[in-house]
Amino acid sequence: MIAPPCGKPCCRRARVAIIGQSDDPSKTTGRPLRFLRAMGYRGAVYPVNARRDTVMGERAWRSVSALPEAPDHAYLVVPTEAVVDTVAECGKAGVKIASILAAGFSETGPEGVAREQRLREIAAETGIRIVGPSCLGVINMRAKA
Q1: Rounded Cα–Cα distance for residues 130 and 86 (Å)
Q2: CB atoms within 10 A of CB 16
Q3: Helices (H), 22-106
């Protein structure tokens, strides 16, 4: 990573991990990387796929803990069953924000409520902020950092 000119967080490149990134750009789990590239995102992008060394022609990492640096934001496109453990891994790795696409939380009954409560506990323990679950995320159309 290139050092920021002044050392302030606002001047350095943003870093995002896409956890569960697919190699197939037509799948929901394949679209995040395709869209970031198509829209000219200039920050560091770390595709994470536990079963692949590359996705869509780019290097992929097996886990968040295998990344060369902690991303600022993790976008989770993993199955519901993997969300809690993945958010916990992100929090331990120093990720500041996790956006969760998966559904299957409080809207599904007691089991989902328990999953959502565990996410709250992880957020309190690690300081990670959570967008979602069941959320496409947020976008800033002006910043391509």
Answers
A1: 12
A2: 22
A3: 31-38, 80-93
Distance CA 135, CA 14 (A): 21
pLDDT in tens, 108-133: 999 999 999 999 999 999 999 999 99
Q: What residues contact 28, with CB distance under 8 A and at least 6 apart?
A: 77, 101
Residues 120, 126, 131: CA angle, nearest 5 degrees: 50
Facing residues of 76 across strands?
19, 100
Which H or E run contains 116?
A: helix 110-126
- The pTM score is 0.87
Pairing mode of beta strands 15-19, 54-55: unpaired
